[in-house]
Amino acid sequence: MEPNPILLELEQRAHKDGVSIVSRETGRFLSVIVTAMQASRILEVGTSYGYSTLSMALAQPRMGRIWTIERDAAHAAVALQYFRRAGEDDYIELFNTPAAEMLENFPHRNLDIVFIATAPREYGRYLELVIPMLKLSGLAIFYGCALAEGFVRLFLAHPALDATILPLGEGTGIGARRQ
User: Fold this and answer.
1) How far apart are CA 150 and CA 14, in angstroms?
2) Residue 33 included in any domain
3) CATH code of the domain covering residue 148
4) Residue 176 near residue 138, CB atoms below 8 Å
5) Beta strand extents in the chain (DSSP E only)
């Protein structure tokens, strides 16, 4: 299936600008997961240009909500432009702030999905912060987790998760909250 035209344009823009975004396969994976779960409460850490954000937003039920965190103001500005053009800006709230600060004080709970695609060296810390935010059976998804030394073992053995690593990108971890 050919991606949404706005996602294709976003891919081209990111490539031209040399900005890292998730792979097309990962965007499609996120879309399928959101559709299957009818996920309406999603937190994302690492917006970049908003490719993964839009992949999820376009699959969400109407009135769903995505909160996304991007510390780079220039990337956030590009993402907001694409959210508006896709007609999804009413359903996406972008925070231009350091992720750790936001996660420590994030007020929302019972999230369906938390998707993290940012600095892998912080993944262990983020894992502990986001698990309490998930509803039971909610998903924690970490992009490129094989790049985070020691994280894979921690993630797979975490007592609150039923987790696995998928061969998407540099390893995509997906864990369902079980307690």
Assistant:
1) 30
2) yes
3) 3.40.50.150
4) yes
5) 41-45, 65-69, 92-95, 111-116, 134-143, 161-166, 172-177
Q: Which long-range contacts does 161-169 make (Cβ < 8 Å, 24+ apart)?
A: 161/131, 166/29, 168/23, 168/25, 168/26, 168/29, 168/143, 169/22, 169/23, 169/25, 169/26, 169/143, 169/144
pLDDT recorded at residue 94: 98
- pTM for this model (two decimals): 0.96
* Domain of 29, in residue numbers: 5-10+20-177
Q: What's the pLDDT tens digit per position in 24-75?
A: 999 999 999 999 999 999 999 999 999 999 999 999 998 999 999 999 999 9
**How many domains does the chain contain in total?**
1
Quote the crossing angle between the two packed helices 5-17 and 73-85, to the nearest 10°.
Answer: 160
Closest CA to 25 of 52, 49, 48: 52
Evaluate whether residue 156 is within a structural domain: yes
Amino acid (one-letter) located at 69: I
